[in-house]
Automatic annotation (TrEMBL), chain A:
Catalytic activity as recorded in UniProt: 5-[(5-phospho-1-deoxy-D-ribulos-1-ylimino)methylamino]-1-(5-phospho-beta-D-ribosyl)imidazole-4-carboxamide + L-glutamine = D-erythro-1-(imidazol-4-yl)glycerol 3-phosphate + 5-amino-1-(5-phospho-beta-D-ribosyl)imidazole-4-carboxamide + L-glutamate + H(+)
Native organism: Alicyclobacillus macrosporangiidus
An example Gene Ontology biological process: L-histidine biosynthetic process
Presence of the UniProt keyword Cytoplasm in the record: yes
Molecular-function annotations in GO: imidazoleglycerol-phosphate synthase activity; lyase activity
Record's protein name: Imidazole glycerol phosphate synthase subunit HisF
Pathway: Amino-acid biosynthesis; L-histidine biosynthesis; L-histidine from 5-phospho-alpha-D-ribose 1-diphosphate: step 5/9
PANTHER family listed in its UniProt record: IMIDAZOLE GLYCEROL PHOSPHATE SYNTHASE HISHF, IMIDAZOLE GLYCEROL PHOSPHATE SYNTHASE SUBUNIT HISF/H IGP SYNTHASE SUBUNIT HISF/H
Record's keyword annotation contains Lyase: yes
Keywords attached to this entry: Amino-acid biosynthesis, Cytoplasm, Histidine biosynthesis, Lyase
From TrEMBL, chain B:
The protein's name in its UniProt record: Imidazole glycerol phosphate synthase subunit HisH
Active site: C86, H189, E191
Gene it is expressed from: hisH
InterPro entries registered for this protein in UniProt: Class_I_gatase-like, GATASE, Imidazole-glycPsynth_HisH
Domain Glutamine amidotransferase, residue spans: 4-205
Cell wall biogenesis/degradation among keywords: no
A GO molecular function held by the record: lyase activity
Function recorded in the entry: IGPS catalyzes the conversion of PRFAR and glutamine to IGP, AICAR and glutamate. The HisH subunit catalyzes the hydrolysis of glutamine to glutamate and ammonia as part of the synthesis of IGP and AICAR. The resulting ammonia molecule is channeled to the active site of HisF.
CDD domains: GATase1_IGP_Synthase (cd01748)
Oligomer status and interactors: Heterodimer of HisH and HisF.
Its EC number(s): 4.3.2.10, 3.5.1.2
One Gene Ontology cellular component: cytoplasm
Subcellular location: Cytoplasm
Involved pathway(s): Amino-acid biosynthesis; L-histidine biosynthesis; L-histidine from 5-phospho-alpha-D-ribose 1-diphosphate: step 5/9
Amino acid sequence: MLTKRIIPCFDVLDGRVVKHVGFLENRRDAGDPVALAERYCADGADELVLLDISASEEGRLATHRVVAQVAEKVNIPLTVGGGVSTVDDVRALLLAGADKVSMNTGAVRNPQLIREAAHRFGEQCVVVAIDAKLNETMGQYEVMVKGGKVGTGMDVITWAKRAADFGAGEILLTSFRQDGTREGFDITLTRLVAEAVNIPVIASGGAGKKEHFYKVLTEGKADAALAASVFHFAETSVGQVKAFLRQKGVPVRWTGTGTPA
Amino acid sequence: MIAVLDLGIGNLSSVRSGFLRAGEETTVIARGEAWEELLAARDDVTGVVLPGVGAFGDAMFQLRASGLLNVVRGAVREGRPLLGICLGMQLLFSLSEEHGSHVGLGVFPGKVVRFPNDVKVPHMGWNDLTVVKDHPLLAGVRKGDYVYFVHSFHAVVQDEQHLLAAAQYGRTLVPAVVAKGSVCGTQFHPEKSGPVGEKILRNFVAICRAWTAPKGEKAHV
C-alpha cells in the first residue's frame, strides 16, 4: 500500500538553513543543510524539500553547491525550488542533483513553464508550489506570489487544476496564514485541493505537533505533509511523528526509529 | 565499473551517487556504436544500467539516435548483467501505450499501460514490496520492505516467471522487479529507496562482479 509521506523542508539562504515565521519576519538560523539532511534521513524522512531564498546570483550558486552535497549524501528523493522561472533553471537544479524541481511565482507568471518542464524532464519532476491565503472579499483561497507578499486574484482550486492539466506531477500547497505559526495545517484548504486534482498533494504550513500531521493526512486527505521549524527546533522528530501515525493506523514507511513520545 | 547509459533526458547524478554509496564506480556512456567497441575501450566494465525518466517514445528515439541501442543489445546478447530503472525497466518490454504506441526492446514480453483513473497518477511515494520469487538481486529484501516509486505507466508482465516482486496500488498489482537471465529491472528507484534500495544496488554490484563470460559461446560480432 502506498504510504503517507513526512517531508522536512529547509529554507536555504546563502548555503545556510534558516526559518522565517510568517514568511518574512523573524529569521532564525537552523543549521548546516548537509548535517540536517543526514539527520532527517536517518530519522525516517521520506523526502526532503530545499527552498532557495537567496536574492543574489552568488547565493543561488551557493545553494546549487548545497544541493549537490545533499544529493550525494542522502538516498531519498530531494525536491529543490526557489526562484525557478525558466526551463534552464529547472535543468540546472536537476543537474545539481535535485530529483524534482518546485516552481511557484515563475509558473504563475508563465504556466507554459510547467508544460515545457514536464515535456522535457518528465511530469514526475515538476512540483508546482502554491501559496494560499484566505481572501475574505473573494470568499476564496487566493494564490499568493513573491513569497506570500503579492496576491494574484486567482482562486487556488482553479490554479491547482490548471497546473495539473499542464503536467505538474505534484502540488506543494502552503497555507500562508498557517506557515510558521505551528497552530496546525489548514485542513479545509488541503482537502479542497486534494479532492480537486488527481495528482499527489503535499500539505504545508502550520505543523506544530504530531496530531496536526495525523489530521491533515486523514481529514485533510493530503498525500504528504511537510514541515520545517517543528523539526529544526526539535519540537518533535520525524521518527516520533511517524511512530504516532503508525499507532493511529495511518500507513507510513516504517524504518523502526522513534517512539510516539 | 558500471556503465550508466545517458539518454540525455534525466539526471544521472542520483544513480551515480547511489552506486558510489553501494561501493562501485560508474562511467557514463552517451554514445555507442557496438557493445564490443565499448568493452574494447573500457575493459573494466562489468555491467550496464539503463536509467530513465521522461517519455517512452523519446527514450527509444534517443536509444536509436545515440547508438546506445547497439550497446544494450550487445550486452543482452553477451549475457552481461543489465539493470533497467523506472522508465529503463519499461523500455525492456515489448510495447508501450504512452502517448500513442511505441515498440520497446522486447526483452520481456508484455506491455506498458497507464494506471486507471481511480487512483492518483503518478504513483508517487513509498510502497511495500511482495517478493514472489527469490533472486540474487533481492537477497536480503523482505516482504513489506518499502521502496520509492514515481511513475504514471506500469508494465503488464506476460510471463509470470519474469516477475520477482510486486507492489499494490489501488486495484493494480504493479510489477516492481522483473528478471530474465542476465537482464533485470526495477520500476522503483533503488538509488532513492533508502537502505532497502542500497541493498538492491549492492546486490547488483555483486552480480556484476561475479559475472564471467559463458564458456564456449562467445557473442557473435
